[in-house]
């Protein structure tokens, strides 16, 4: 098992800089959450990591070897949107077969069983699938493929609550049975908060957070109480946002707290991942 | 999160959802059911193993240890002061209740529960 290293990666589309020098590492057998607002560069990053589009500068390496034109390494990586390249007249089961030919050892048992669970017709033409079933189809191929690195770009797009629940369950089970690396980009942060182990937050083409979910949340605090008390208590701390209700205010702090004595009127609580994300990526603040 | 996992399983054992010698659900089952990363579930399980509440039977899974309930009760008794009594006194002072009034309330609570 190998890790993927992303070094100083930039990407420009014309004059627009989409990725502005990214550095991070993906370790084997972990589930990563790739979070960012619309247009933050998530899909571009996923496509670059899997060599689907060229980067402007920087390197993506696996054990020191560049991924560019390196079929042996690229076979270890699978990007969910890959199947969009297939002829829309192909049927679902045919794409399973094609994927098996390309990557080898396709898990037909799993993919066929999941097709049954989700109610996806194996004989349906892929171009005729509805938005939801199109996503389900892509997810099933990604779950069945034998690659070590699976990149899931919006795996719940268009799925109803029941199907999302089923997807998360099956993902956890499949991961437990055959550990591999998943990188999941999603806007449904609350739903994946407990299933990802490590979080990557990107904003304006830069990495804002790259750390374990537990460590990240350990640094996120909500300080609530009367406005004046809250402001004086959090003075000098890294306040990333606030909410107010009448004269009661909540300041969101990301980082270490100091040793100041907590007034009776003020309370400190934790913050969930979604709240942290919103406050970190709000425009105009910070 | 892993602390919550440990707490939930502990609570289930304490409330007799799982008795001594019972198998507790596997990491995979819990992970699947609640959409929690298996590493997190395992971390929570390991806390309970180190507290001698559950034990691993190689190849079979996790089982509730003998006297697990008693051990949980002892642990919770130790935590009772910090978790409840300290906070109650602070809140009572905020409400301007005297020590005597608070004790009377506790006595009343006991009478109600008899």
TrEMBL record, chain A:
InterPro entries: AAA+_ATPase (IPR003593), ABC_transporter-like_ATP-bd (IPR003439), ABC_Transporter_VariousFunc (IPR051782), P-loop_NTPase (IPR027417). Residues 4-229 form the ABC transporter domain. Keywords: ATP-binding, Nucleotide-binding, Transport. Gene3D superfamilies: P-loop containing nucleotide triphosphate hydrolases. Pfam families: ABC_tran (PF00005). SUPFAM superfamilies: P-loop containing nucleoside triphosphate hydrolases (SSF52540). It comes from the Bacteria. The keyword Transport applies. GO terms for molecular function: ATP binding; ATP hydrolysis activity. PANTHER family: ABC TRANSPORTER ATP-BINDING PROTEIN ALBC-RELATED (PTHR42939:SF1). This is ABC transporter domain-containing protein. It comes from Secundilactobacillus malefermentans. The lineage of its organism: Bacteria, Bacillati, Bacillota, Bacilli, Lactobacillales.
UniProtKB/TrEMBL annotation, chain B:
The keyword Repeat does not apply. InterPro entries: Tscrpt_reg_HTH_GntR, WH-like_DNA-bd_sf, WH_DNA-bd_sf. One of its GO terms (molecular function) is DNA binding. Keywords: DNA-binding, Transcription, Transcription regulation. It comes from the Bacteria. It holds the Pfam family GntR. Residues 1-67 form the HTH gntR-type domain. The keyword DNA damage does not apply. This is HTH gntR-type domain-containing protein.
């Amino acid at each position: 098992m190998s890790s993927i290293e992303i070094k100083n990666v930039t990407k420009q589309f014309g004059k627009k800089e989409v990725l502005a020098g990214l550095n991070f590492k993906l370790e084997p057998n972990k589930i990563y959450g790739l979070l960012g607002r619309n247009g933050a560069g998530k899909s571009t990053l996923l496509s670059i990591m899997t060599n689907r589009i060229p980067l402007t500068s920087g390197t993506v390496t696996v054990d020191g070897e560049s991924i560019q034109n390196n079929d042996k390494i690229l076979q270890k990586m699978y990007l969910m949107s890959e199947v969009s390249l297939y002829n829309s007249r192909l049927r679902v089961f045919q794409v399973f077969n094609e994927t098996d030919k390309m990557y080898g050892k396709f898990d037909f048992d799993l993919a066929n069983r999941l097709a049954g669970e989700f109610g996806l017709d194996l004989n349906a033409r892929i171009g005729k699938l509805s938005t939801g079933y199109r996503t389900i189809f892509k997810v099933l191929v990604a779950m069945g493929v034998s690659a070590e690195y699976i990149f899931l770009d919006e795996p719940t797009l268009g799925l109803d609550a029941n199907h999302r629940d089923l997807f998360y369950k099956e993902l956890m089970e499949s991961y437990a049975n055959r550990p591999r690396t998943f990188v999941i980009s999603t806007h449904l942060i609350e739903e994946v908060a407990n299933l990802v182990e490590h979080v990557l937050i990107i904003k304006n083409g830069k990495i804002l957070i790259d750390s374990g979910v537990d460590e990240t949340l350990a640094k996120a605090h909500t300080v609530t109480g009367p406005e004046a008390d809250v402001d004086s208590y959090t003075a000098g701390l890294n306040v990333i946002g606030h909410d107010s209700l009448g004269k009661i205010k909540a300041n969101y702090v990301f980082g270490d707290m100091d040793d100041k004595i907590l007034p009776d009127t003020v309370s400190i609580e934790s913050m969930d991942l979604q709240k942290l994300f919103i406050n970190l990526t709000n425009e105009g603040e910070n | 999160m892993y602390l919550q996992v440990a707490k939930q399983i502990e609570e289930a054992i304490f409330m007799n959802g799982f008795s001594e010698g019972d198998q507790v659900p596997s990491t995979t089952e819990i992970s699947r059911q609640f959409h929690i990363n298996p590493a997190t579930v395992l971390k929570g399980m390991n806390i309970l193993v180190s507290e001698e509440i559950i034990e691993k039977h190689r190849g079979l899974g996790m089982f509730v240890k003998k006297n697990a309930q008693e051990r949980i009760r002892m642990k919770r008794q130790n935590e009772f002061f910090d978790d409840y009594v300290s906070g109650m006194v602070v809140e009572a002072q905020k409400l301007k209740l005297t020590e005597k009034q608070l004790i009377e309330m506790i006595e009343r609570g006991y009478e109600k529960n008899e």
